[in-house]
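Page header: ASSEMBLY MODEL / two components / 591 residues total.
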Amino acid sequence: MNHKNWFFNALFSLAGGLLVIFVILPLFSTLLATTPAAFLMSFSDPEVLHSIGLTFGAAAIATSLALVTGVPLAYLLARHRFRGKRLLEAIINLPVVIPHTAAGVALLLVFGRRGLIGQWLSPLGIAFTDNIGGIVVAMLFVSLPFLVNLSREAFAMVDEELERVAFTDGASQSQAFWHITLPLAWRGVLGGAVMMWARGISEFGAVVILAYNPKIAPVLVFERFEGFGLNAAEPIALLLILVALVVFILLRLALMPEKAQD
Amino acid sequence: MIVFAAGSLIIPFGDLQKAFESKYPNIDVRAQYHGSIQVIRQVTDLHLPIDVIATADASLVPSLMYAVNDPDTGKPYASWDIRFATNHLAIAYRPESKYASQINADNWYTILSRPDVKVGITDPRFDAAGYRALMVFALAQQYYHQPTIFSNMFKGKFSFPLGYFYEDGLTTITVPEIVETAPGSNIIVRGASMEEIALLQSGDVDYTFEYESVILQQGLQMVHLPDALNLGEATYDQTYHQVEVDLNYQRFATVKPQFVGERIAYGITIPSNAPHPDAAAEFISFLLSPQGRAIMQANHQPLFNPVTADQYSNLPATLQTLCKPAYTP
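Prediction written out in full:
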């Protein structure tokens, strides 16, 4: 390695290292600020445990809904050119740029009791305000770009030639998708699902407008902070960070061993 | 200069801020609006440097700020409080709200307790309109001579129930540490009243307890509550005193969680750790000036005349000329 390369690498490591420290420092401070006793208490706080279960569950439902709708869409976007494709991709990415409180208000206009869809569902007893349904639609809305984009990239990486070979061997498009493309792309799709699930868990702004109750973990952290101060919020924040970290690492290891080996 | 004010002041204080900034172009006002208890906690618990504190319940300033010392200076967070405006509590609704054509000042409590009617109440742990709404139900039991008004409205609606005790002419309502509506409850709790207004406008709430000034500012329909219930009439102060809301937990040393019913009085003060106390005093002078009065009046929230101050001798000199000492027994 010559001198110039050494300098280049050192400079980039320093720049990147600062960013990593920027991420780790707040997490570490939360860890240090929380007394072990308060942290253990939050384990036995039924409201906290229930809230974490609700958060993970609702995010999983949102991700499942996106898997059955977003994966077909991602495949179409990866394989076909058509008029309005750019527009469609822009629409899919809109939730990334819309402020999430604004997304919550917009969802209220659709899923609220008198909303476009909500007015038909509410006589059937399906409610979205202050209900898990509202949590799921809010999480779905803000996090679906992760699944669609990562799945689309995964499908695009699969050589189209392989599908054509399958066609010439007499396979239908459906057979080619299920037996060739999806087996080659599934890690990318599941990686997208994990990212989407994680993004759903962390959502606050859109959820709190539709459903303050039942309280998902980010709402509970905010409520404890607003109502009872920093000391009350820290143990839950820490628990949430740790649980999310462990689940996230495990899922990544299980689903993406190839990437981990890189 | 940083102003933290009660959510119900957002529109009049927005106008006030604009007028103030055009008169004093070198002062940049930054305002935030929260539930009244939250506003104070930003100073006493989070130690944020704030110049003006305006709450919808003036009695919060003595109980939450006089009594707590800033650890940096050893002085209380506040030592005076100007009671500048009142309001009336009322029920906001829209023409589309369920039973909108039937509701009136005599039957509101039966309509609000119907299971198909969604009622917005702000969190009584954080917001003055929330605990005042609870007071209204207790006062209504006596006023209408109906002993089940409170339980019809609240029984079974929360995962952890509200307490209701009556002894020697005093009704005490206790609020549990966890406020969470039970599944199927027709009560929708939010942290601040503006969120309830948003839900009212989207049709997800049929009725919400709100200050008259806000209802008029927002152009909503209103059920006027009788004077014995609306917490806005000086002549009924003794009636209002018959009810009290206690937060039934002792989580913080800083909060004396007990709210006694009384005529609504908005309070304003300058925290002892304010970074810009002079600009803050200018802002309050402006609020109390004829121009400030006119702005508040135009937003349906007239100021008291005269404005009174608790702990008058501690006021900055510039503000003393604008207030009278509050009567202290």
